[in-house]
Amino acid sequence: MLEQANALNHSPVRAARLSGGMEDYAGSQAQGSVLFSDSADWEQHAGPLDLKMCRPSFIPNHIKMARSGKPMEKLAAARVLTILTSEDAATLDVSKSRMEICSSGGPEALLTMLSSTETTDDTSLTLAKEAAAATIANLCAQDDSRAAVVGKDAIGILLKLIERESSEELLKYACGALGNLARESVENQEAIAPGIPQLINLSRLVGIKPDDDEAAEHASLDDAEADNGLELNASITLRKLAIGNAPNYKMMEEMLTQSELRYFLHGELPNDEGRIPDSEIDK
């Protein structure tokens, strides 16, 4: 009993409750920004990019294509903008490219694409939206370009997107963008807070599923092979929303099981097998 009491007293969950929020754990991916580069899916669909087009001098043209081009043109433009804003563009001044994209109307063009509710079977347009969300995430990796994105109602658009869209790849990029927006910003944490229930739903798409007895009995919290990146990015976003924010942490504490709370927010498995305890299945 004494050992159990000591474990509870030193648990990260109790520490977070007492501190009015949570501190991130060492080595957590929530300590920095989530960055994206060109996707194999985009290349498989549209072919390799002409690297000559990845020059900062072409930024205005790419933004124009992202705004009013055909679906394949939108995809090509958004792919280039993703590369220009990622750290893979090692030979370029990435910070400068991000700000040039912002000053040239990039956030508006990309967010307009993401806010579209038009249904389509055009794969190119779906992939273009993925690249647009990836670029928005990358723009939010530094304070000045992040402020430009926030000023264009990015949070509202992304929150509607994660409620509306079903593409797990697109949702992965959108969650990454929301996480970068939440990083070290109480104001953005509060603005994103209404999306916490949906972020929890997205985190649960892989791993433990408390509403499914059979799946919960066999599902593992640590099944990396089953995760396409959506659970990871959604849970990182939850962590960024909870760091130093007591109301957000309290909301998550009320909605998550103890195992989920430890796993998604504190990076801990509930037991050696990483299985959800039977006592939590019906929570």
Automatic annotation (TrEMBL):
Write down the superkingdom of origin. Answer: Eukaryota
Q: Where are the ARM repeats?
A: 153-182
Which SUPFAM superfamilies is this protein grouped with? Answer: ARM repeat
Q: Which InterPro entries match?
A: ARM-like (IPR011989), ARM-type_fold (IPR016024), Armadillo (IPR000225)
Name of the protein described by the UniProt record: Protein HGH1 homolog
Species this chain originates from: Haptolina brevifila
